[in-house]
Design brief:
Helices cover 41% and strands 14% of the residues. By secondary structure, it is α/β, with parallel strands linked by helices. The protein folds into four domains: 252 residues, 3-Layer(aba) Sandwich (Rossmann fold); 196 residues, Response regulator (Rossmann fold); 47 residues, no CATH class; 271 residues, Rhodopsin 7-helix transmembrane proteins (Rhopdopsin 7-helix transmembrane proteins). The protein is rod-shaped, with a radius of gyration of 52 Å.
Length: 895
C-alpha cells in the first residue's frame, strides 16, 4: 500500500509540473528568451529589500551591493528565524563608494550627447546582506521591476534591468550568475567571482572586470622570486573557496621552487558565538603557526571576512601574553581595508607594510568634486545614505535619542573620514563599477548604431527602448572596446575577463589608525614572462619589526657560491644542506641546485665560486727559466766554438793530428748545433718550429754520436794496425770514418722523413693537464716515431760505449777510448733518466727536461772528450810534441 501511495504522489507531482510548464508556454512573450508579461496591478512586494537606491530612466542598470549586513545569532528552533537577527544593521561604509561610482557614471552618460543619445540611463541598486536567500531574491526583483517581485514575469511599465553589476563577494557573484544565466541577462562582476576559467562555459552571461586569479598567482611567484622568499605560510578561510585556493596555489609554488611552511585555515564563523569561541579557546593553538620565526612571509587569500577575523586575532593578542606578529603580508586582490563601525577599534598596525595585488584604478576627472557634493539628502531614493552617514560619522540623522550623543548636521564632509571608512580617491572596485556601466552603455550604443537582427527599429531608425532585451547586449558586450574618461582602454578577452593590469600596493598603517596606499609595482599579465612584474624596491616600506632591513623567509640560510644544495631526508625540498662543490666545479650564485664545470678555457677559483680565464703556458724568453736555458745554450755553444778554434789553431800539433782532425771538426760542429738546438724549444710553438725541433734534435745528435762511434772504431783500428803483419791498415783512413758518419746519420734522416710524412709534430693546446693553464706545446704527432729516434741514438751510443770500454786500456798515444767511454757513460745516463722524468712532467716543464737533457748530454760529450786535450794544448804545451808522444808510447809498451 505504501509503495502505491509513493508512486501516486510522484505521478501527481510530475503531472502538476507539466501543467505549470504548459501554462507558461501559453503565456505571451515579449521576445525570444524574454520573460512573460502580465498585468502589473498586483500589490507591491510585502517584504521588500529595505536598502535600495532607485533612479528612473528609459533603460535601467541593476547592481547588487554589499554595503549593509547583519550579525546573526545561531538558530535555536525556538522562535522564528526573522527574530534572530539583530535589529541594528552594520554598514561597510567603504563600499558606499561603489554605489556612488555607479551614480557618477550614470550622471555622466545622461549628459553625454554622443553616447546613447535620447536615452536616459537609470539604475536600481539592491543590497544582498551577505545572505544567500537575499542574494537570490535581489536579481529576481531587478528582473521584475521596481518594488515588484513576480518571479518569471516582467511588468512592462516598470523598467527592468538590462544588465546587472555585482557582486562583491564570490558567493554573491556565483549566486547571481545562477539566476541571471537563466534569463540571459548580462552580469558584470566587478570583483573576482567564484568561477574559474574552466567553468566559463557554465556561465555564458558572466563578464568579469578583473583578470583571472591565475595572473595574480603568477605575480605572487614573481614577487617571491624577486626577494628570494622560498618558505612562506598560506592562510585562507576554511570553506570551499579557501580549499580551492590552497589546492591551486600549492602546486604552482612547488613548480617554482617555493614551499609552503604551513597552511593556516581560518574558521568560517557564521555566528557571533562561534567567533567568541574561536578567539578564547583555539587562539593560542592556532597562533603558534603564525609565530614561526623562519616564516616571515604570509600569503593570505584575502576575502574581507578573513581579514576581519585576523584583525580580531591581532587585537586579542594585544591583551594577552602572546607576541605580536612582525611579518610580510602578501594579500590577494580580493582584500581592501574596510571597517564596520564596530571594527574601527580593531588592531591594524600588524598589517603595516602589507603588499597586495590591487585592482588597477585611475582617478577620473570630476569624481572627487562629485564626492564633495554628497550630503545626507543628495539624491531622492538613496536608501543607503542614512546608515552610511550615521555609522561613518558616528551621529544620528533622526531626532535626538537617549543612546545617541550627537545629531548629524548634514554638513559633514566625506574627506574628513579615515581611509578605513571611506576614501576620496577612486578605489579599484569603484573603478571597475564605473567601467562596467560604460561597457553596457557602449554595447547599447553599438546596437543602436550598427543594428542587429535581434532588435526592432523605430521608424526614425533609433533604438526601440521599450523592446530592448538583456540578451541582445551579449553580442556587442563581448566585443566592447573603448577608452574611458581617464584615457585607459577597456575590453574583454576571450574568457570575458577584463584585459587590464594589477597594481602592487604597499599599505602603510599609522598609529592613529589612518593608512596610505603606495603603488610600488605593476603586474602586467600580457607583458613578456620575464617582465610581467615591475618593482620599485626603494619605495617599499616593511613592517617596523624588520627595522628597515629586507625580510628573509627561507627554511635555512642560503647556500653561498661555491656550495650546492643537498636535500634533507624527510623534509620539504626548500630545506636543505649546503655541500662544497667538487674539485674543478663551481657554483657562482646562491642556492644553486648543482655545481657545474667551467668552460675548457677557464678554471675554477680556489673558492669554487667563479671561473677564471686560463693563462697560456709555454716556455718563453720573458721568464727566468727560458732566459737561463737560452743563456746556457749560447754559452755552451760559444765554449764549443772556442774549442774548435783551439783545435784549428793547433791543427799541426801531434796531439791534434793523432785524433783524426776531420772527425774532431765534425763532432765539434755537431755539438755547436746541439747546443743551439734548444733555442727552437723556447718561445710560442708554431707550425714550423714544432717539426723543426724534433728533426734538428734527431739528425744533429745522430751526426754527433756517429762521429764518436767513428772515432772509437778508428782508435781500435789504429792500434790493431801497429801489430806486425796486420791487414787493418787498409781500413784506416777517411773512407771508413766518413762511411760510419754518413750511414749513421742517413738512417736517422730516413726515420725523420717517415715521421714528417706520416704524423709530423704540430702545435697543440692542452686544456686539462694543469689547473689554471692552457698548455701550448708541440704534440709529437707520433709518439712511436719520437721514441724510435731516441732508441736509434741510444743504440749507437751503446755501441760506442761498448767498443770504447773494451779499448780503454790501449796505449795512451793512440787512446781516446778512455775519454769516449766516460762521455758515452754520461750520454747514456742522461737519456736513460730523461724518459721517466719526461713522462712525469707536464706542460712547459716537459720542454725544460728535454732541453736539459740535450745540454747535459752535449756537455758530457764536450767535456769528457775535449777537456783533457784542451788542457794539454793550452796549459801543457810541452807535452804536445813528438818526443813526449814516443816516450809515452814506449812506457806504455813496457807496462
Amino acid at each position: 500500500m505504501m509503495s502505491r501511495r509513493v508512486e501516486f504522489c510522484i505521478w501527481s507531482g510530475n503531472f502538476v509540473i507539466r501543467m505549470l510548464l504548459l501554462l507558461l508556454l501559453l503565456l505571451p512573450y515579449d521576445e525570444v528568451y524574454g520573460m512573460p508579461s502580465i498585468n502589473c496591478s498586483i500589490k507591491d512586494d510585502p517584504f521588500p529589500i529595505p536598502h535600495n537606491f532607485y533612479q528612473p530612466g528609459n533603460l535601467s542598470i541593476g547592481m547588487i551591493a554589499n554595503q549593509v549586513g547583519f550579525i546573526n545569532n545561531p538558530p535555536s528552533f525556538m522562535q522564528h528565524p526573522t527574530h534572530l537577527t539583530i535589529d541594528e544593521p552594520m554598514s561597510v561604509t567603504k563600499n558606499y563608494q561603489h554605489i556612488l561610482a555607479l551614480a557618477f557614471a550614470a550622471k555622466e552618460l545622461n549628459k553625454d550627447p554622443n553616447l546613447i543619445p535620447n536615452i536616459t540611463l537609470g539604475f536600481y541598486i539592491l543590497n544582498c546582506y551577505h545572505l544567500g536567500r537575499m542574494t537570490f531574491k535581489a536579481p529576481l526583483s531587478l528582473l521584475s521591476g521596481q518594488r515588484k517581485l513576480v518571479p518569471n514575469f516582467s511588468c512592462n511599465e516598470l523598467k527592468k534591468s538590462i544588465a546587472v553589476i555585482g557582486g562583491l563577494l564570490p558567493e554573491t557573484s556565483s549566486n547571481l550568475a545562477t539566476i541571471l544565466n537563466i534569463y540571459k541577462t548580462p552580469q558584470v562582476s566587478y570583483k573576482h567571482g567564484a568561477t574559474e576559467m574552466s567553468q566559463i562555459k557554465n556561465f555564458p552571461s558572466l563578464y568579469q572586470m578583473v583578470p583571472s586569479e591565475a595572473y595574480q598567482y603568477k605575480g605572487v611567484v614573481h614577487l617571491l622570486h624577486h626577494f628570494r622568499w622560498t618558505w612562506i605560510g598560506l592562510l585562507a578561510m576554511d570553506d570551499d573557496r579557501g580549499n580551492q585556493f590552497l589546492q591551486t596555489i600549492v602546486p604552482i609554488l612547488t613548480e617554482n621552487s617555493i614551499c609552503s611552511a604551513f597552511t593556516f585555515k581560518l574558521p568560517k564563523a557564521t555566528y557571533m558565538e562561534e567567533v567568541v569561541e574561536e578567539m578564547t579557546v583555539k587562539l593560542s593553538e592556532r597562533y603558534q603557526y603564525l609565530m614561526d620565526r623562519k616564516t616571515n612571509v604570509l600569503f593570505l587569500y584575502g576575502e574581507p571576512p578573513v581579514v576581519t577575523y585576523l584583525r580580531i586575532i591581532f587585537t586579542k593578542v594585544v591583551f594577552t601574553s602572546l607576541t605580536p606578529l612582525s611579518k610580510v603580508w602578501i594579500i590577494s586582490s580580493h582584500w581592501d581595508f574596510e571597517s564596520l563601525a564596530l571594527q574601527n577599534i580593531l588592531d591594524m598596525e600588524t598589517l603595516h607594510g602589507t603588499l597586495s595585488f590591487t585592482v588597477h584604478s585611475n582617478q577620473l576627472p570630476g569624481f572627487q568634486e562629485f564626492l564633495q557634493t554628497i550630503r545626507p539628502f543628495w539624491a531622492e531614493g538613496d536608501g543607503f545614505i542614512q546608515i552610511f552617514w550615521e555609522q561613518a560619522f558616528g551621529c544620528s540623522l533622526k531626532h535626538k535619542q537617549e543612546d545617541v550623543e550627537e545629531i548629524c548636521t548634514g554638513e559633514e564632509k566625506l574627506e574628513s573620514l579615515p581611509g578605513t571608512s571611506f576614501e576620496m580617491h577612486m578605489t579599484g572596485y569603484s573603478y571597475n563599477v564605473y567601467n562596467a556601466v560604460y561597457a553596457a552603455a557602449h554595447a547599447l550604443h553599438n546596437i543602436n548604431i550598427h543594428g542587429s537582427k535581434h532588435r526592432r527599429l523605430a521608424k526614425v531608425g533609433r533604438l526601440d527602448v521599450q523592446n530592448i532585451q538583456p540578451w541582445q547586449l551579449h553580442h556587442c558586450l563581448k566585443r566592447t572596446l573603448f577608452n574611458n574618461s581617464a584615457g585607459e582602454s577597456v575590453r574583454f578577452d576571450k574568457n570575458r575577463e577584463l584585459v587590464t593590469v594589477f597594481d602592487l600596493t604597499n599599505w602603510l598603517i599609522f598609529p592613529n589608525g589612518s593608512f596610505a596606499r603606495v603603488k610600488v609595482g605593476r603586474l602586467d599579465p600580457f607583458a613578456p614572462s620575464d617582465n610581467q612584474l615591475t618593482l620599485n624596491d626603494d619605495r617599499i616600506v616593511w613592517h617596523r619589526g624588520f627595522k628597515e632591513m629586507l625580510p628573509v623567509s627561507v627554511c635555512n640560510d642560503q647556500c653561498q657560491p661555491g656550495y650546492s644544495k643537498t636535500k634533507r631526508e624527510g623534509e620539504k625540498f626548500c630545506c636543505y644542506d649546503c655541500t662544497p662543490c667538487p674539485e674543478g666545479m663551481i657554483s657562482e650564485q646562491k642556492d644553486m641546485d648543482n655545481c657545474f664545470q667551467c668552460p675548457e678555457d677557464q678554471y675554477a677559483s680556489k673558492e669554487r665560486d667563479r671561473c677564471l680565464p686560463k693563462v697560456l703556458s709555454f716556455l718563453s724568453y720573458n721568464e727566468d727559466l727560458g732566459i737561463t736555458l737560452a743563456f746556457l745554450s749560447c754559452s755552451f755553444a760559444l765554449i764549443t766554438v772556442a774549442v774548435l778554434g783551439i783545435f784549428i789553431k793547433h791543427q799541426n800539433t801531434p796531439l791534434v793530428k793523432a785524433n783524426n782532425q776531420d772527425l774532431t771538426y765534425i763532432l765539434l760542429i755537431s755539438l755547436i748545433l746541439c747546443f743551439l738546438s734548444p733555442l727552437l724549444y723556447i718561445g710560442h710553438p708554431g707550425i714550423v718550429s714544432c717539426p723543426l725541433q724534433q728533426m734538428t734534435f734527431g739528425i744533429i745528435f745522430s751526426v754527433a754520436v756517429s762521429s764518436v762511434l767513428a772515432k772509437t772504431i778508428n782508435v781500435v783500428l789504429a792500434f790493431m794496425a801497429t801489430k806486425p803483419g796486420s791487414r787493418m791498415r787498409i781500413w784506416i783512413g777517411k773512407r771508413l770514418t766518413n762511411m760510419v758518419v754518413l750511414s749513421g746519420s742517413f738512417i736517422q734522416v730516413v726515420i725523420c722523413t717517415v715521421w714528417l710524412c706520416t704524423a709530423p709534430p704540430f702545435p697543440d693546446v692542452d686544456m686539462k693537464s694543469l689547473t689554471g693553464e692552457m698548455l701550448v706545446d708541440c704534440n709529437k704527432g707520433s709518439v712511436v716515431m719520437f721514441y724510435l729516434i731516441l732508441g736509434y741514438m741510444a743504440l749507437m751510443a751503446m755501441i760506442s760505449f761498448i767498443v770504447a770500454y773494451f779499448a780503454r786500456k790501449l796505449p795512451d798515444t793512440f787512446n781516446e777510448a778512455k775519454f769516449i767511454t766516460f762521455s758515452m757513460l754520461v750520454f747514456c745516463s742522461v737519456w736513460i733518466s730523461f724518459i721517466p722524468t719526461y713522462l712525469s712532467t707536464k706542460g712547459k716543464y716537459m720542454v725544460v727536461v728535454e732541453i736539459f737533457s740535450i745540454l747535459a748530454s752535449s756537455a758530457g760529450l764536450l767535456g769528457c772528450i775535449f777537456a783533457p786535450k784542451c788542457y794539454i794544448i793550452v796549459l801543457k804545451p810541452q807535452l804536445n810534441n813528438q818526443g813526449q808522444i814516443m816516450w809515452r808510447s814506449k812506457s806504455s809498451r813496457i807496462d
